[in-house]
Amino acid sequence: MTDPSELYADVEAEIGTLLIGMEEQIELLTIAALTRGHVLLEGVPGVAKTSLANVFATATGLDYNRIQMTPDTLPADITGTKVYREQTGHFEAQRGPVFANVVVADEINRATPKTQSALLEAMEENQVTIEGDTYPLPEMFMVVATQNPIEMEGVFELPEAQRDRFQVKVMVNLPSRDDELSLIERFHDDPTLTPDDVEQVVGRADLQRAREIVADIHVDESVEEYIVDVVGATRDHPDVSHGASPRATLAFLNTAKARAAIAGRDYVIPDDVKAMAEPILVHRLILSTEAELGEADRAAIVDDVLDSVVPPGGEQSAAEAEPVEQD
């Protein structure tokens, strides 16, 4: 089973046996896994952010390590260090928890910027350097970081360079009333239900082949131009001091291809780009001082950006735009 749409359907169905109402979040995690992306999960405590990452790794057959970030977490606690072995008389690399397929940096904004930066090389170059020696990370590697948006004490805002390396930011919101009722019923019927009850439904070979299919998805030149224009519009918005980088442009290209493949298409449409705009852009925009003081809504700015760029095939003729009044 290598078709991306079937792969996503199987993963979503299996995770759905435990978690309720997370179809959008599972889709974005799948898109990231198919495009070598990293994910920033944001939500209030208790909405199953860490559990989502855990069961996603289980369902896809990937190794999983969780790092609890705290103010006293050191870079070596993430990447590893070298230990002297008396038997051999040499220093031996002791690899840290970053050496896994899915690495969950739980409450990443509780770690200091110095510790957060320990993930930069891993996220960009798929390798880490331990005391001068470089070690490759697994081919299947993704960082899933979680953060709580409501706590202000004892946290450190992610640096711009760190945020830019997250392909998408995924909001995990409180469940709807119906979903919460379903949650009660599910755990009333089976109080012992845990992430361990989720089973693997996808193999690594399936993921690798699905990645290759995604890479071959067709993107028309007009859609490529649309992506560039959307990213360019973030740099011209009056509330934005620094817009999205070329890394965001590539994120649009890759995630739009993955979304098309999950939908069963072998070509990208403008709606794929629009659907990925908020997850890709909302954490990358650096607002102007006035916008920050005015607590401007980044999602609303993304909507403004999309409204300012005409998608392929979206041009209107003058007659359609301004109907002529007849006497």
UniProtKB/TrEMBL annotation:
Pfam families in UniProt: AAA_3, AAA_lid_2
Domain of life, per lineage: Archaea
CDD domains: AAA (cd00009)
InterPro entries referenced in this protein's UniProt entry, alphabetically: AAA+_ATPase, ATPase_AAA-3, CbbQ/NirQ/NorQ/GpvN, ChlI/MoxR_AAA_lid, P-loop_NTPase
Record-annotated AAA+ ATPase domain positions: 35-176
Record region (Disordered): 308-327
Protein name: AAA family ATPase
Taxonomic classification: Archaea, Methanobacteriati, Methanobacteriota, Stenosarchaea group, Halobacteria
